[in-house]
Amino acid sequence: MTHEMTFSSELTIDLDALAANYRNLRDHVAPAQCGAVVKANAYGLGARRAVPALYQAGCRTFFVAQLCEAIELHDVLGDDCTLVILNGLDPGAEDLCADHGFVPALNAPGALQRWREAARRRGQRLPAALQFDTGMSRLGVDGATARRVACDPGFATEVELRLVMTHLASADEPGAPSNAAQLSTFDALTALFPGVPRSIANSFGSALPAAFHNDVVRAGIALYGVPLPPGAAVIQPVVGLRARILQTRQIAAGTGVGYGLTYTAPDTRRLATLAIGYADGWPRALSNRGAAWHDGKRLPIVGRVSMDSIMVDITALDEGALGEGDLVELIGPGQSLDQVAADAGTIPYEILTSLGRRHARFYKEHGMATACIAGEVR
Ligand SMILES: *Cc1c(COP(=O)(O)O)cnc(C)c1O
């Protein structure tokens, strides 16, 4: 028995599809450049595998959320890469950040101050992005701070501004009036920093008109296989998920299923118990909702999702079609990541980043699948 076979579920990650998605996004937003957001371990899929694949596809600008994520990726990044830390500059982290050559997205007056002090202390001009709050009230400096920095001649001697950026609150709603309002505020603020590359769009921003593409697009979720609206870059699925059958059974009308007996069979049913549960990132919100798939047939989840297992109704399949040890599709050709998220009442971002480390992972690259057990890819 190979090590991968000791796992009860399999996550497949198609790095060829990831690279194709990158190239399609890049071509769609050209002449703007396309950067890759690889925060949260590349949305749970393995940043140490995703980054080299994206680099080979031509990506040179990467974004993480936290300093620890940047450090984790330092040795897989080429010297010709820029790594931006979106959450900014943690107090006390200035020297670590500067030693590695990371680019913090300065997003508050205190962070600006601390980065400038570090530059003076080290006698070194330090790279940074500058993030503006243009209406989302999450991260970023306001207009007054931006103007103060732009008018301060000392700033440019201490900080080498690589990027000016902001983030859209409603990029996925093309008609939202806030998009145009944020763009016009951004245009006014970036005019204070002539010649510095500008960045406003995330994945869904790439599907907005070209005015939103600016100089650098920060693509995340679309790289990982979540489709964009018609007319935008064509996106292929990247992730597949399957789980093993632990046992099958037939139950009579009136029989209850799972914790709390929240499902009762209306007539004779055949069930399969699958080895996946909320500890694997399969959301408990899918209790009595959502499904597994096999052979083009939908197998509804019945009863509550447990920590390590779910029950699905396999009555639609021929008797004997599935048995102990067989793998059943949870994300794949029958059921998209988007569909799973919709059934669970959440967004695909949350499903992906929750998938966790309990699945055997198979990375497909250059047409070949390689097994990689959980833990090998951090
Ligand atoms: C996460 C993030 C992105 C990427 O967003 P997607 O919707 O995944 O493309 C871009 N910019 C910032 C500031 C982010 O936090």
TrEMBL record:
It catalyses: L-alanine = D-alanine. The gene is alr. Keywords: Isomerase, Pyridoxal phosphate. Catalyzes the interconversion of L-alanine and D-alanine. May also act on other amino acids. Its cofactor is pyridoxal 5'-phosphate. It is an enzyme of class 5 (isomerase). The keyword Signal does not apply. Its EC number is 5.1.1.1. Pathway: Amino-acid biosynthesis; D-alanine biosynthesis; D-alanine from L-alanine: step 1/1. It comes from Sphingomonas olei. This is Alanine racemase. Belongs to the alanine racemase family. Pfam families: Ala_racemase_C (PF00842), Ala_racemase_N (PF01168). The active site is at residues 39, 259. InterPro entries: Ala_racemase, Ala_racemase/Decarboxylase_C, Ala_racemase_C, Ala_racemase_N, Ala_racemase_pyridoxalP-BS, PLP-binding_barrel. PROSITE patterns: ALANINE_RACEMASE. Residues 238-364 form the Alanine racemase C-terminal domain. The modification N6-(pyridoxal phosphate)lysine is found at residue 39. GO terms for molecular function: alanine racemase activity. Substrate binds at residues 138, 307.
